[in-house]
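Fig. S4 source data, part A: sequence.
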Amino acid sequence: MPETLSPSDAAKAGALGKACKIVAFPTESGYAVGSTGLIKAATRRVLQIKERSTLKPLAILVDSAATAKLWVEWTPLAEKLAAKFWPGPLLLLLKPTAQGRLLTFPEYPTVAIRVPGHPGARAMLAASGVPWVYTSANKSGKPVKLTAAEVSAEFGAQLDLIVDGGEAPAGDPTLVDATGEKPRVTKVGLISAEAIQETAAA
């Protein structure tokens, strides 16, 4: 799997995402589809393409922990877990900052956010200059897609760009509520609950 995007490819993908277009791209946990998190129309389009209920909020991708701190209320626990597992398949559930309220709908008190482990995805995010909403690249209830060809077959012309990064690894991010002093693992993925608890206790 290509580990990086060329600067021109990263810039193209980033510009499209910032402009509310829907982009598919590889991560360390399968392919994802996403777009700017700052425009609700983009969020609704991702949900529509995914055929996913609007009752399930989308997670957020950013290019670095420093960027994440602009959008969510950082906690000592988040600092500890991010230092160990970011970039990587760890979603941290945190309260949004005033600015971060732009990334979600009013009824949701928290935001799930992560820095992807795939350098190409980070380059794309950095080039866009905005946080992205994202979800796995598959219709709801179907398996996650691991190649650009599978993504194309699943979504066809519904996507504005597919970034071909070769075959992506299978798996899901682990989701951890880091709003308090102790971690609450709400979904176990590529990172074990034991690893989360050990890091938090260290």
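Fig. S4 source data, part B ends here. The mean pLDDT is 94.
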